[in-house]
Amino acid sequence: MSETEFLLWVRGPALQGATIIFVLGMAVRILEILVLGRKRDLAEARGSAVAGGLRTIFTRSVPDKGTFKRSTYTLVAGYIFHIGLFITILLFAPHILLIDEVLGVSWPALPTTVVDATTVVTILALLAVLVHRLKDPVQRFLSHFQDYLVWLVTILPLITGYIAFHRVGLPAPTLIAIHILSVELLMVAFPFTKLAHAFTLFIARYYNGAISGYRGVNS
Amino acid sequence: MSKDRTLGETLRQQGISRRGFLKFCAATASMMALPPSMVPAIAAALEKARRPSVIWLSFQECTGCTESLTRSHSPTVEGLIFDAISLDYHHTLQAASGAAAEAAREAAMEENHGKYILVVDGSIPTANPGYSTIAGISNKDMLLDTAQGAAAIVSVGSCAAFGGIPHANPNPTGAVAVSDLVKDKPIINVPGCPPMPVVITGVLAHLLTFGTIPDLDALGRPKAFYGKSIHDRCYRRPFYDKGLFAETFDDEGAKKGWCLYKLGCKGPTTYNACATTKWNEGTSFPIEAGHPCLGCSEPDFWDGGGFYKAISTPTGDVGRAAVYAVGAGAAAGIALGAMNRAKHSRAEKAHEKVTIDDLDKEK
Amino acid sequence: MAHMTDAETLPVTAGESLTYNVQPLLHEIRHALAKLLDDGGHTVIDLRSIPLAPGEEDRLLETLGRGEIVAQLSALGPSEILETRFPGVWLITHYNNDNEVIGRFIEVCRLPRILQAPDEDIREAIENLEAQLALQTGER
What is the rounded CA–CA span in Å between residue B31 and residue C103? Predict the structure, then answer.
């Protein structure tokens, strides 16, 4: 298979397959949660559930002091790589082009040099997270195969993307194909692992906030 | 056409002074993308170089490669190169034809056995040898026969290097590249549709000057010309880095010379010298003229996913696949959710307790 | 530029952001000049090897300007060797017989090598002059 054919396969049938698995899988997971429903609270409402739910979606993004003190390393590294992922995935011109082609929406991009630097920072943050997972006794005890797998499929697109952008080692078409393939791997792993949190977090936060808001308390 | 005289003697014979020779070496070094500091070495090598015999075979091609070479560029330098080489056979350019021409080719092959340079343009059909013949001899036979006594083979153009346009889907003639048929000779691929004329002569100049094969990349292309991608040498790169793209061929961005990535430019995945050396004596190249790079020096560029589709976009219909998947997923999700609810209420009715196994399910 | 035809009538602006290679090139020339004074080091820059956007080469050549010397060489077509307005910085443009540019170099030196008479040519000159003298004495 020539490098062009490989790139075409990756951009074509492989991407379609990965998209189907990703969308189908996530639809199943989200709907399963929604259809399961919540236990009805028979007490009298003291506040607004909806307002509480919606507010919590945002307020949960700010860690409380106690958690921050106890897990500073995890939180800081975690924030860095999440923000880094946001920037490298959604604010990079060729990615925005892809989203525009598939969904029809686009927005301004950051200069590629900024995204390039952010990629390096994100990779370092992810490495820091892995080191902590391996060294901290509690985290090591709790970690299983899936945790390491998820870490790997998250860092691979960053590394392959960085190499593809700088075009070192292999010819450019092959590097870009490997990068797209690594993203397809991430897409396929999404619905079956804790990566689904990227979508389910909104539901979880809403439920928590709604429960508390109904009772008229802060969450 | 004495082949025993060195190039230096030949030039001197033509009344060219040492200064003229140095000018020739400077232009040749520039053409071979070698640094000016190498000019003395090139001068020394060219002085002593003997004229190699060159046999040029044209197979399934459009003659664009020969046109590119002969039509353009500093005829003086190229002309000298061609005076320096002994072009013993080129069926488009030569005066003789038919049996006489073939006899000339065979004579040259015998006389210079093991030392001549074989230049090929055009792909070779394998589905039926009758698809392309010269003087009744199939391309495949002529190639394999002529390749035997060659010192090196230069595959000029994407057709000879990778199969080119005949090789594109559905490849009715079974077209293949030279390297698919000849396995035991050094092959230099000079792809491009057509290749840059300076690259063709640069490769010949290298063979002439140093008598060795230039450094080749993984696809057999001389690194001197194909070592950098168009993207890395493109003058519109600052616009790419800033995210300023032309959306159509005549919008404001296009007029301001913004990056053509969105219009399908294959610059990032293409290796060639167009961005620095340019065409028509350094006048311009496709991107400068406002058209995205086609990627013509890469294998299978004709089938490369559309000339006007950006590299980062999918080639299949991902949108439709996603819509079907959402539909199917929603249905499955609701069904599973309903089953879960049923299981839940059954468990409640049976007063089942939550066990550690239920919580451990994640593992 | 000998080769520019319709390009001159099209609005080509060297304006905004382009390859930014003009400034680094000028810096390189400046360093080469210092080196020339220091240890007599001779530097040659092949302009064909550096990506320049349309108009940038013109801007570079405009900046370098013309100095006190212009020399024409006729060998395998014309060549122009001129000292820019920065003494020690020479611009050499080689043309073929059809006045197409086949090479353009910037040389930082006291005198470009191509202007100096090479040994082989001098040897041939001695032969020719001797022959000429022999002819003249022969006549007398």
Answer: 8
For tokens 């959306």, what's the residue?
B247
B9, B13, B15, B19: CA torsion to nearest 10: 0
Q: Which segment, B46-55, B195-204, B328-337, B350-359, is predicted with the most confidence on average?
A: B328-337
Q: Which fold has domain C13-139?
A: Ribosomal Protein S8; Chain: A, domain 1 (3.30.1370)
Question: What CATH number did the domain enclosing A108 receive?
Answer: 1.20.950.20
Its ipTM equals 0.76
Cβ under 8 Å to C: B residues 234-263: 234-239, 242, 256
Q: What is the pLDDT of residues C126-138, one digit of tens each?
A: 998 999 999 888 7
pTM, 2 dp: 0.77
Which chain C residues are closer than 8 Å to B17 by Cβ? 75, 121, 124
